[in-house]
Design a protein that fits this description.
Elements (H helix, E strand, L loop, with lengths): L1 H19 L10 H11 L2 E7 L4 H10 L3 H10 E7 L4 H8 L7 E6 L4 E7 L4 H16 L4 H9 L5 H14 L4 H10 L8 H10 L7 H7 L1 H7 L6 H7 L2 H11 L3 H18 L1
Parallel strand pairs: 1-2
Antiparallel strand pairs: 1-3, 3-4
Helix pairs in contact: 8-9, 14-15
Length: 274
């Protein structure tokens, strides 16, 4: 009797241990039942739209979804749903959400089935977890992207609004040079070279094509001094702006932006010579 009781307890312990150590738990039901469950739980839906022939989709299945940390976050914060875009209701869902590539990951508000955050393609675990954070931040933001754009066009240049707008552009990886310039001119303390003040404006800066970059370039000694006198801090930061600037040059067909990139590269070489 005692032996059977011990086996039973061990089985329960093993089951609990496996449950806590697993990755993402995807729903077994259809889309309608998933919506109902998410509404009742007041959670976003994480939907992975895949195909059987998609290599990156298979990599997600193998490398990302079984991860314990990924499972903990997604099982606590989302109702998780996988669907094949070429089978059953997946065909209609792929059309409904205008899916053009795989895997497409959607974070959906079950109340109106609207996409809160969309991202496509394979990524590693840290970035995948950051996507979950971004989705939750977008869900908590009462203003949609279009509303920010409209308010800015109508002249809302209040500091608090512009900071929220800049934070949103960073989360969504959207262009922000125009908004950044207005914030820099009207609200940024250009005489304060503390790490707190610098850190804020530098975190908002995403390309070389704005008024912030030349200002910080002119004051790079003060910038480096603020960050423990590191002689290469400014170069390290500005180097991260090169690829986004190149993308902007390509998207806008603006060859002048290539000169900004070349000048930044020359600055890097000058420092190497020293």
């Amino acid at each position: 009797m005692k032996y059977r009781l011990l086996l039973l307890c061990f089985g329960i312990w093993l089951t609990i241990g496996m449950a806590y150590g697993q990755g993402i738990q995807f729903e077994n039901g259809d889309w309608k039942s998933t919506l109902a469950k998410a509404k009742a739980a007041n959670k976003l839906i994480y939907m992975d739209i895949y195909t059987t022939w998609c290599g990156p989709c298979k990599m997600m299945d193998r490398n990302i979804f079984p991860n314990e940390d990924v499972g903990k976050v997604h099982n606590e914060q989302f109702i998780n749903f996988k669907v094949d875009a070429e089978k059953g209701e997946g065909i209609d869902l792929a059309k409904q959400y205008k899916v053009t590539g795989y895997p497409t990951n959607l974070y959906i508000d079950p109340k109106d089935e609207a996409v809160v955050y969309r991202v496509m393609g394979y990524t590693e675990i840290p970035e995948f977890l950051r996507r979950a954070e971004t989705a939750q931040a977008e869900y908590a933001d009462p203003m949609k992207w279009e509303a920010y754009q409209e308010a800015f066009r109508k002249g809302n240049h209040d500091a608090a609004f512009l900071e929220k707008y800049l934070e949103k552009t960073t989360r969504l990886n959207e262009p922000n040079d125009e908004v950044l310039n207005v914030y820099f001119r009207t609200h940024y303390n250009q005489s304060d070279f503390s790490t707190e003040n610098l850190g804020k404006i530098m975190s908002y800066t995403r390309t070389l094509d704005n008024e912030v970059y030349p200002f910080l370039l002119k004051n790079k000694v003060a910038v480096n001094k603020a960050y423990a006198g590191s002689s290469d801090f400014f170069l390290s930061w500005s180097g991260r702006l090169v690829n986004p600037t190149l993308n902007k040059a390509i998207d806008s067909k603006n060859e002048a932006l290539l000169d900004k990139i070349i000048d930044n590269k020359k600055l890097d070489k000058q420092e190497d010579i020293k």
